[in-house]
Amino acid sequence: MIFAAMKKYVLIVAGGQGTRMGASLPKQFLEVAKEPILMHTLRRFWQWDENAEIILVLPAAHQDYWHTLQAKYQFQIPHVVVNGGETRTDSVRQGLAYIQEEESLVAIHDGVRPCVALSTIAESFQVAAQKGSAITAVRLKDSIREMLPSGHTEARDRSRYFLMQTPQTFQTKLIKAAYAQLKSTAMTDDASVAEHHGIAVHLIEGSYQNIKATTPEDLFLLEYLLQSNSPFRL
Prior knowledge:
The chain has a single domain (7-225), classed as Spore Coat Polysaccharide Biosynthesis Protein SpsA, Chain A (Alpha-Beta Complex). It is 34% helix and 24% strand. The strands form three sheets. Strands 5-4-1-6-10-7-11 form a seven-stranded mixed sheet, sandwiched between helices. Strands 2-3 form a two-stranded antiparallel ribbon. The chain is built from seven helices and eleven strands. The longest helix is centred in the first third of the chain and has 14 residues, at 60-73. It has 234 residues and is of the alpha/beta class.
């Protein structure tokens, strides 16, 4: 099927409680640059392609609050809301179940990564259409050491390692099959699920600005990146 004609889906997973953030609200609802983080994230994909169908996976307990925020901020980016599961794996599986058109492409993205570049989104869909998968990643900047069972550490060659980001984009039929066969809920990203099912993992270059809101200092970085006068405005 020709890439331009393929239906494109965006599955945004936003079920985190934000324990490490130390906030009273789930981190996806925290306000940064005048809007909740999650709204910035949805808008990025809508800015890339208004015709891509956005699927937001939220815990049922959070959905009323999300609708309240939509009204408060007059947020009108089109999307559908799907109930999340007990784990991230369950949530992704339920989001994928919403997609009936398997001859399509789907980008799976963290709800708290609002600074993904439009060029990264575009490349992820293009590569996934050609190769089956496109996994956003960046190289390590710092030296690394491995903790051994003995308690000692050994230096490792950082050039051989990557930090995984999202979006992680796939031909829909491939990633749905991988999740359908998955038994473990311990895997932390979709690339691992795909690889476990025998799908080749193809990396694309991400950005160090594509940070995931995890701890309080991340909020300061996001505020800086998302503000309208930032020199790094995406």
